[in-house]
């Protein structure tokens, strides 16, 4: 009898710990992903970040071209978000050389460290990230979407095509579809087994926020990742961008974002959408550096519901550094509320 009571106590503790540490897999890239990861670390979630490897601009692009490794920039930012290291160490890792430092101009120290470790480990990016994660005391997992750099190809609605993530926005034409390709034309882009397992074993899969065509879809267009997202029993949550983006989502509503995702995977796979309904101040409209943002994404509740999505709408704006961002704490509050309601429905 005493042994049975101990077994029941142990089982109860497992269930309690599971409730305290839900398995959450976040898929994306760019500046939106670290915002969520920082908040999830504070909540002590069991986090896995799956990061795009199609970035070919800036320091990451230069390194991937010279050393033929996956672009390290998004991985670096995710590591900083999930690491409890003191701020000075993080600043060193994030430090970017000045433009007048000819040889190192524009490179972040963290990018160079990731590249060096990858080379040391026989071009094994997963092993490099694992070692660096241990060094940075990261409690969670950071996985590149594939073990090799990938090339993004966009096909516009007029039938023309462009290669390279960094070139896409320059054309200012409506996009029909994006795909990703290995530089070795005989190979198909393939994720590591750990990437697929993380998606299938999660309590929730979070997609976004991030550039629709250049941060989110490059992950989902890897066949095995897209298939896993469609097949997982986890709640699939999409966090829609607050602002449209030049050359990508001009004039888009939140429903348009979801429609593009569904069309690319051939299935309505998104269960819930988080959308912002707070107005962006006029002085933040069309005033961003490099014109990356244009206007606020329009709210289309009926369009979202027609695609079978549960909608969470509220005020999620955080204004800082002359930019418009998601308030990470508010978003994660909604994530945990959704997790709680999902668990109750499944019991």
TrEMBL record:
<dbReference type="InterPro" id="IPR002882">
    <property type="entry name" value="CofD"/>
</dbReference>
<comment type="similarity">
    <text>Belongs to the heat shock protein 70 family.</text>
</comment>
<comment type="similarity">
    <text>Belongs to the gluconeogenesis factor family.</text>
</comment>
<protein>
    <recommendedName>
        <fullName>Putative gluconeogenesis factor</fullName>
    </recommendedName>
</protein>
<dbReference type="GO" id="GO:0043743">
    <property type="term" value="F:LPPG:FO 2-phospho-L-lactate transferase activity"/>
</dbReference>
<dbReference type="Pfam" id="PF01933">
    <property type="entry name" value="CofD"/>
</dbReference>
<comment type="function">
    <text>Required for morphogenesis under gluconeogenic growth conditions.</text>
</comment>
<dbReference type="InterPro" id="IPR010119">
    <property type="entry name" value="Gluconeogen_factor"/>
</dbReference>
<dbReference type="GO" id="GO:0008360">
    <property type="term" value="P:regulation of cell shape"/>
</dbReference>
<dbReference type="InterPro" id="IPR038136">
    <property type="entry name" value="CofD-like_dom_sf"/>
</dbReference>
<dbReference type="InterPro" id="IPR018181">
    <property type="entry name" value="Heat_shock_70_CS"/>
</dbReference>
<keyword id="KW-0963">Cytoplasm</keyword>
<dbReference type="GO" id="GO:0005737">
    <property type="term" value="C:cytoplasm"/>
</dbReference>
